[in-house]
Structures are given as C-alpha cells and as structure tokens.
Amino acid sequence: MPRAIISPSVLASDFGQLSAECKRMIKGGAEWLHMDVMDGHFVPNISMGAPILSCVYKGVPGIFMDCHMMVAEPEKWVNDIADAGGSLYCFHIEATSDAISLINAIHARNMKAGVAISPDTPSTAITDEIGTAADMLLVMTVYPGRGGQKFIERCVPKVAELRARFPEKDIEVDGGVGPKTIDVCADAGSNVIVAGTAIFNAPNPEDVITSLKATVNTAQARFSK
Ligand code: DX5
Ligand code: ZN
To answer: Is 92 in the pocket of ligand 1 (CB under 6 A)?
Structure first.
C-alpha cells in the first residue's frame, strides 16, 4: 500500500531563510521537500536551480529533495541536480521526446525518477513502459509556473486512471492542494501530496501536515481492503 508522503512546496516559503524553512517543515512532519525549479522557458517564471539546492542540502541533514523540474530540455540538468543532492528528479513529459532514456539517466545518477503531466496532457501520455520505469507520477492540478493558484478539479480523474494502472506507484498531486481539496485527491488515489500556500501560510503548518497525511492514509487503507 503506498504510504502518505507530504512534500511542502518551498515556493511558498521565505526564500531568504530557505534552510530554516525546510527544517521547520521536517520538524512539523513533512517527509519530503518539494523544490520547484523553473527556467523561464518551460514556464515564464524563474525560481531557483542547483546552486541553491546544494546549499539547502548541506544545511539540512538528511533532507529528501523532491525536485520538480519545470524546465525545457530536462536532460540538461540531471547531473547538476544529482551533484546538488537531489533525491528525486521529476521532469515534464511535455518537455522531452525520450522519457525512457531520461529516466535511465536519472537512475544512473542514483535519483528516483518522476514524470509530470500538465493539466492539458492526458494520463495516456504516460505509456505503460514509461509508467513502469518511473518511480513517481505527478498529476499537476494547476498550470505549472506559480504558487497559490486555484485547484483544477477536472485533473483529478487522471489520478484515478493512473492509480488503476499502477496500484503500487507513488502518485503525486501538485497545485492548489490543501485541507479543502485533499479529499478528492486522496479518494482518487494520490499518496504524495504537495502543498505550498496551504502549509506555509497556515498558523500551524504541522496541523495541516498531520491532517493531510491522515486523510491519505485512511483512503489508502480503504483501497487495500
Ligand atoms: C506550481 C508549482 C507548485 C506550487 C504549489 O507551478 O509546481 O509546486 O508551488 O503551490 P500551491 O500549493 O500554493 O498551489
Ligand atoms: Zn511543483
């Protein structure tokens, strides 16, 4: 049974205190930290890259960096992110023509490989071969590019489609996810939950983390019956 993993998106954190913000999340119960890398090409914004991740990695012992690569030419950054301490390298399927070779390159650098689909990309873009080779599948529930957007509910059926095809795989949702939208995500079968504003802007982030996790674990226990 896939376990609940909470991955707070640091895009909503205070970048001036990034390492401290990551530590605060781990203390609050987060398993992973979601690091949104944007290149100004695949998406209009620029956020951060390998040099910053490398500093965070050194400052936060044991951190699992779930790197969401919103970049054109994702092949280009595998080595830099691996050298920076990335644990999982999640690329967009829209940005590559050879997902299998890219997954192999990510694995060769001892990172987990994730494959993301944007709101207008069907779940079938993840073929059986790609889905089997990947360690995680990411269904975007907003258009990639910035935090704080409204959850797009029509993306949720894609989570259920992927869960039916890949019962044991980590399936992540990202964008507008929080206490108000977690139920549909959990019921559809996602187990890795990214939340930026819903966690960082909460008066008590650990309460939000605990409740998101409980909702996912309850749903997963129901599936396994
Ligand atoms: C959007 C990013 C998300 C974003 C999520 O492009 O991929 O990770 O930071 O933020 P919230 O949870 O605020 O929608
Ligand atoms: Zn993201």
So the answer is: no
DSSP state of 42: S
pTM: 0.98
187 in catalytic set: no
**3-25 pLDDT, tens digit each:** 999 999 999 999 999 999 999 99
For the Cβ of 175 lying below 6 angstroms from any atom of ligand 1, the answer is: yes
Does 176 belong to an annotated binding site? Answer: yes
For the question of residue 174 being annotated catalytic, the response is yes
**What is the rounded CA–CA span in Å between residue 126 and residue 129?**
8
User: DSSP labels for 121-181?
Assistant: S-GGGS-HHHHHH-SEEEEESS-TT-SSPPP-GGGHHHHHHHHHH-TTSEEEEESS-STTT
The Cα 148–Cα 175 span in angstroms is 8
